[in-house]
Prior knowledge:
Layout: E1 3-7, H1 17-31, E2 35-41, H2 60-63, E3 69-72, H3 83-103, E4 110-115, H4 118-131, E5 134-139, H5 145-150, H6 156-172, E6 175-178, H7 184-191, E7 198-200, E8 222-228, H8 235-247, E9 251-257, H9 261-268, E10 274-277, H10 282-290, E11 294-298, H11 311-318, E12 323-326, H12 329-338, E13 341-344, H13 349-360, H14 363-380, H15 383-394
Parallel strand pairs: 1-2, 1-4, 2-3, 4-5, 5-6, 6-7, 8-9, 8-11, 9-10, 11-12, 12-13
Amino acid sequence: xxxxxxxxxxxxxxxxxxxxxxxxxxxxxxxxxxxxxxxxxxxxxxxxxxxxxxxxxxxxxxxxxxxxxxxxxxxxxxxxxxxxxxxxxxxxxxxxxxxxxxxxxxxxxxxxxxxxxxxxxxxxxxxxxxxxxxxxxxxxxxxxxxxxxxxxxxxxxxxxxxxxxxxxxxxxxxxxxxxxxxxxxxxxxxxxxxxxxxxxxxxxxxxxxxxxxxxxxxxxxxxxxxxxxxxxxxxxxxxxxxxxxxxxxxxxxxxxxxxxxxxxxxxxxxxxxxxxxxxxxxxxxxxxxxxxxxxxxxxxxxxxxxxxxxxxxxxxxxxxxxxxxxxxxxxxxxxxxxxxxxxxxxxxxxxxxxxxxxxxxxxxxxxxxxxxxxxxxxxxxxxxxxxxxxxxxxx
Length: 395
């Protein structure tokens, strides 16, 4: 039986697409008869307190695994806009992972590491030589390109330095896994590597998560925003949309977390058409998403975000909820090609409102989109199928 070590800062029971992706990689590889172990941190995103609640520990098969899930404790837990604060956090995580690897006496056939942060990527490179193993690099975001995109860090010399480190990781890895096809050309050109070195395994769903249901008719029209309210998301647009939605009698539900959550919620708390829900488990979140008529996606208009496929697009499709997206590039291409929503590059709130009203007024079209979404998830974004690409390489 081949042995795999996964190294990831985030993992079950944390919320968010990063933790869920690694959870699925871990579980699906185990189902494929690999001996899998993970080095990760204690759950703390978006804050440690929510994991004191037992409802987040809802995967019994993982709760029983004490030997194969090794967690480090982190003293610096604060998530903020401060690049310095995040840097210290990432470095502490990386250092503790290195110490774990040095102490670990086991052997592994494959090291699978997810990035960003890039520091964890270099932990994986260290592990490759420490264990004399194959190194699989999972890329969830382009880094440091995304630093420029969110506008928190623009020092050209330091960005160039991190860009050189990024290139080393691409070249030293034995296989690169990407979660968006928008990354492929960038990575190939950046590192001058062949296309055959890259495998596309998007974020997705397992079959049991796909919601087949009939929405109740004659209920107030409701839209939802579920996911990160961070530096990449256009929270200013949501702020401007809320009063326009209220005038039209359209309900908005927000299940959000992230560094801009508090600021956004304070700015819209006076409006009666907004329902704020605290972070939930994936299962509970999906139940609520499925009760809505439309799902909202917003990204800032930056070049790097044209390469990403936001996890909430996959989540909305899994729940059969048509999409209204302020997106561009690869994400826009997916939504339009599959005909599962309406997108715009323009962040004019009046135009987005007109898109929302148009879809809310056409029940037949929404139902057609919903059925297509379910099929797209089964065909293209299904973990049970897509993991075979990685298994084929590892065998």
